[in-house]
């Protein structure tokens, strides 16, 4: 995990994004530990003012690694402006947050 990412606990949930910074979109990669069981993950993307820009539905399932693409669009289908966006993944195992920079 790089300095822009944190998790509630090393044994709960891990989150990363690649590429970061991104030109038009990125892929959120999250890992659910084996002891967490089944569940659905949700990823929210927020602007720096805390407003929700987009909600992404993670893959249903249990432990392991999952990837969810974000195309750099807001909930209305418009390209988000260049800037820093805060991201959070939530699952029954916990939550993790981080930052993604969009360059245009």
Walk me through the topology.
Blueprint: E1 5-7, E2 14-18, E3 26-32, E4 42-46, E5 52-57, E6 64-70, E7 83-91, E8 94-102
Antiparallel strand pairs: 1-8, 2-3, 3-6, 4-5, 4-7, 7-8
Distance between the termini: 25 Å
- Give the overall pLDDT as a whole number: 84
For the sheet with most strands, the description reads: 5 strands, antiparallel
Please identify the structural class as seen in this structure.
mainly beta
Question: How large a portion of the residues is in β-strands, by DSSP E?
Answer: over 45%
As a percent range, the share of helical residues equals under 10%
Widest sheet: strand order?
Answer: 1-8-7-4-5
Query: Given the C-alpha coordinates, what overall shape results?
Result: elongated
**Tally the helices: what do you get?**
0
Whole-number radius of gyration? 13 Å
Flag low-confidence runs.
Answer: 5-10
The sequence of SSEs as H and E is EEEEEEEE
Instruction: Give the total of beta strands.
Output: 8
């Amino acid at each position: 995990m790089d300095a822009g990412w944190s998790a509630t606990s090393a044994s709960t949930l891990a989150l990363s994004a690649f590429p970061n910074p991104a030109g038009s979109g990125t892929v959120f990669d999250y890992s659910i530990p084996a002891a967490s069981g089944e569940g659905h993950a949700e990823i929210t993307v927020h602007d720096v003012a805390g407003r929700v820009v987009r909600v992404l539905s993670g893959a249903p399932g249990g432990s392991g690694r999952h990837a969810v693409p974000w195309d750099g669009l807001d909930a209305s289908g418009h390209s988000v402006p260049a800037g820093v966006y805060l991201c959070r993944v939530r699952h029954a195992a916990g939550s993790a947050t981080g930052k993604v920079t969009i360059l245009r």
